[in-house]
Amino acid sequence: MSIETLDLGYFTRPAAEWGGPHDREEPALGYLVRYEGGALVFDTGMGEGSPEADAHYRPVRKPLPVGPDDVDLVVNCHLHFDHIGGNQRFPGTPVLVQRTELATALAGDYTIDSLLPGVRYEEIDGEHEIAPGVRIVPTPGHTEGHQSLVLDHGERVTVLAGQAYDFAHEFGTPYRPWLGRLGQLAAGRPVRVLFAHDHAVWEGTLPLPR
């Protein structure tokens, strides 16, 4: 199993939005995962189509370096515009999304609506095993339908956490119930956690359910 980080650009989050003293630049990261029997891309970058969003976040986009011939699946942690910008490049490829997340997006006033059509969504409810050692786990918080990808390498576990937390240093604080499930899956092995908007990596062991 291999994981390649995809640099898909960056955007600027206004100070008033995150409660800090200044605007901050945040990367938009995706991941290409190759596993036995297949490959997937986790998040596809920042989508276009909203002058308001561009004015607010001032995105600098980099092209997604993979296409439909390179992967079997797309997984989005959630459906905000900065995670689904390349989905329409994969019209026949299953895009796995939590049922509640898709329903929220289709209801409007949630993402850039023009990014949603022409995508082959496959709705899931809760956990879903893609292949041995490759599992989707719901990680609600940032959105109700947020999900992460758990990759079991045998000796250790990698979690692609998307925007379950904004930054690596925040991971685990405050405690969220799904952390216990990740701890169960890790079963005491070292865990590495990668994020959608932070180049930093969290490493450690995860708690069992409380």
Written overview of the protein:
The chain is of the alpha/beta class and 210 residues long. The chain contains four helices and 13 strands. The strands form two sheets. It has a seven-stranded mixed β-sheet. A six-stranded mixed β-sheet has the order 8-9-10-11-12-13, with helices on one face. The protein starts with a strand and ends in a 6-residue tail after the last strand.
Give a summary of the structure in a few sentences.
The protein has 210 residues and is α/β, with parallel strands linked by helices. The protein contains four helices and 13 strands.
Keywords:
single chain; 210 residues; alpha/beta; 7-stranded mixed β-sheet; 6-stranded mixed β-sheet; 13 strands; 33% strand; globular
What is the element layout, followed by pairings?
Blueprint: E1 2-13, H1 15-18, E2 24-35, E3 38-42, H2 51-57, E4 60-61, E5 73-75, E6 94-98, H3 99-106, E7 120-124, E8 128-131, E9 134-138, E10 147-152, E11 157-160, H4 178-186, E12 191-194, E13 202-204
Parallel strand pairs: 3-5, 5-6, 6-7, 11-12
Antiparallel strand pairs: 1-2, 1-4, 2-3, 8-9, 9-10, 10-11, 12-13
* Overall geometric form: globular
**Total DSSP E strands:** 13
SSE order, one letter for each helix or strand: EHEEHEEEHEEEEEHEE
Total helical segments: 4
Give the biggest sheet.
Answer: 7 strands, mixed
Question: Helical residue percent?
Answer: 10-25%
Low-confidence stretches: none
Structural class: alpha/beta
Report the end-to-end length measured between terminal Cα atoms.
31 Å
